[in-house]
Structure formats: C-alpha cells, structure tokens
Amino acid sequence: MAKAKLASWNRAKGFGFLSLNGESKQLFVHISSFADKKLDPEKLVGLWFNYTLAKDKQGRPCAKQLRLVGSKPAFSTKPNGLAKRAGMTALAFFVLLLSLVLLQKLPLALLVFYVVMSVVTFVLYALDKSAAQAGRWRVQELKLHVFALIGGWPGAMLAQQTLRHKTQKQSFRWGYYCTVLLNIAALAYLLSPNGEPMLLDINQALSSLLP
C-alpha cells in the first residue's frame, strides 16, 4: 500500500487528485474510493492517505481504498501501559482529594467539581478525536486547555492515553503540562492559611451550583 497527499478536491463532481512525487504527478481518486464513507475529503486536502493503486473502467490508473495515515479507532481495546499509568495517576489524585475532604481540609463540592470537569474534558477529547477522523470541525485546543486548567486535567490525561489523542504535538503537550502545574499550584494555595478565605468563597459558589 502506497502513501500520498490529497492535493485537491472537487465537491460538486465528487473526485480529486493525490499528489505523487511532490507536485509533478497526480493520481485520480473518486469519492467512492475512501474506506471511511463518513469522511469529508474537501476538509482533508493536504493530509496524507494510504491507498491501493488500481485502474478504472477505461484502464486509467486511480487510487482505491484510501485511509487517513495514522487513523485509529477512537477507543482502542489493545493493552496500553500508558493508559493504565494515567488511570492510576488520576485515581491517586482523586483518592488524595477524598482524603482531604474526610479530613475537612477541602469541601466535598470541590471534589465533585473535579470529577465533573474530568468527565467533561474526557468527552471533549473523544469528540475531538472523532472529528479529526471524520474531517469535521475540531474542538479548539484552547478549550481543551481551559477545561484542564479549571480541574479537568485528570480526565485530559486519561483521554490522551486511552484514546491515543493529542500525544504527538509537543506544543500542545507543554501547554497541557502548564495547566496541570497551575491547577495544582492553585489547589496548594487554597489549602494554605492565606487561601482559606478564597476556599470558603469557592465552596459557597459550588454549593449553589451543585444539587
């Protein structure tokens, strides 16, 4: 199976061309040749595809069985050591929060808030993964970082490794690490004597929002 970049697409006519050997040669591809029928080729121009070389009814070369390079199911059933480690780290963090709640160092509402934000952030990662594979509008990276910053970073960490998403782009990874450090620093401040008044205000605000 060969690999080439989708160079152009004509939505009205339902076909386009793959770029071979840079820009010197092009290979015809029809909409029916994509393995994933949910893809929108017009939004995938410039991306790489694996394909099988074939011939049309007139004997002309064309591409068949196109698949996005590196595309994987959103949820993988294969063993993933990093996913297990991420799960254990998230669990340890929530156990720590629960311990602080039992010791009356943190309000229960804050623990519930972390859980809710982690679930929401995980869902956002799953939606972004699905959108990336289907060529639909993506979830903004800034939104993923904001939800991680306000408490959803355990869910983000679990989503990255479980879904195998957002793990290659180094700039995004550094941004994520910053959200984790800032959130933990803010939590440490709330646990300090100076942060106690703010913690009380946050507890009141969350208690009014949560049932």
From TrEMBL:
Positions the record marks as coiled coil are none
What protein is this chain from? Uncharacterized protein
Q: What is the lineage of its organism?
A: Bacteria, Pseudomonadati, Pseudomonadota, Gammaproteobacteria, Alteromonadales
Which Pfam families does the UniProt record give? DUF1294
Known InterPro entries for this protein?
CSP_DNA-bd, DUF1294, NA-bd_OB-fold
Keywords carried by this UniProt record: Membrane, Transmembrane, Transmembrane helix
Q: Where are the transmembrane segments?
A: 82-102, 108-127, 174-191
Superkingdom as given in the UniProt entry: Bacteria
Q: Tell me which positions the record assigns to the signal sequence.
A: none
Which CDD domains does this entry report, sorted A to Z?
CSP_CDS
Please provide, alphabetically and separated by semicolons, the GO molecular function terms listed in this UniProt record.
nucleic acid binding
